[in-house]
Write a structure and sequence with these properties.
- By secondary structure, this protein is mainly beta.
- The protein is 4% helix and 35% strand.
- The chain has one helix and eleven strands.
- The chain has one helix at residues 54-60; strands spanning 27-31, 38-42, 47-51, 65-71, 75-78, 82-87, 93-98, 105-110, 116-120, 134-136, 153-154.
- The strands form three sheets. A five-stranded mixed beta sheet has the order 9-4-3-10-11.
- Strand 7 (93-98) and strand 8 (105-110) form a beta hairpin.
- The longest helix has 7 residues, at 54-60.
- The two termini are 27 Å apart.
Length: 156
C-alpha cells in the first residue's frame, strides 16, 4: 500500500448546495508528539476498536492499541512522514506513517481492511473520543486487561 492511498484527494465539485455550518461533518485532528505531523479526519469514524495482537502491542508500547478508522478519502495527512511496511500476524501487509522527528505513528492502513485509514486514538488527545465497538485478538489479551462497555463485540 502506498502513502498516496493514505492521503485524501483534493476536494471534488458537488452538484448540490453546501450544507449550513451546523450541518457540516465533525472534524478531528490527530498530531504526533512534536506536532509537525497531523491527520485531519472528517466525519465520524466507521469503526473504533482495541486490538490485542502482538504487533499492536509492539507498535503502541502497551498491552493493547486503540484506533479509529475512516474511509481513506476522509483523512488528510500533513507534514513530513516516514513509512514502514510489514506483514502482520494475520498475514496482511500494513503500512505505517510516522513522524521522522519524534517517531509517533499518525496513521496506518492494512490490506485486511481495504479503503480505510486507522488513526491511533491517543494522537487525538481527546478523553471524550467515542468508545470502542470492537475488541479483537482477545486470545493475546493480557489477563489483567478488561475491555468493558455496552455493545462491544469481543473477538478471539
Amino acid at each position: 500500500m502506498s502513502r498516496a492511498s493514505l492521503v485524501s484527494a483534493p476536494g471534488v465539485a458537488q452538484d448540490h448546495p453546501m450544507p449550513n455550518a451546523t450541518d457540516a461533518p465533525a472534524t478531528r485532528t490527530a498530531t504526533c508528539r512534536c506536532g509537525q505531523l497531523r491527520a485531519t479526519c472528517t466525519g465520524d469514524p466507521v469503526r473504533v476498536s482495541v486490538c490485542h495482537c502482538l504487533d499492536c502491542q509492539k507498535r503502541s508500547g502497551s498491552s493493547f492499541a486503540a484506533q479509529a478508522r475512516w474511509p481513506d478519502a476522509q483523512v488528510r495527512i500533513e507534514g513530513d512522514t516516514k513509512s514502514w511496511t510489514c506483514t502482520s500476524e494475520s498475514g496482511n501487509r500494513a503500512t505505517f506513517l510516522f513522524c521522522p522527528v519524534c517517531g509517533g505513528t499518525i496513521a496506518y492502513a492494512s490490506e485486511g481492511v481495504p479503503g480505510l485509514t486507522a488513526i491511533p486514538l491517543g494522537t487525538f488527545a481527546d478523553p471524550d473520543f467515542p468508545p470502542p465497538d470492537y475488541s479483537v485478538y482477545e486470545g493475546r489479551k493480557h489477563a489483567w486487561v478488561a475491555i468493558v462497555g455496552d455493545g462491544i463485540e469481543h473477538w478471539r
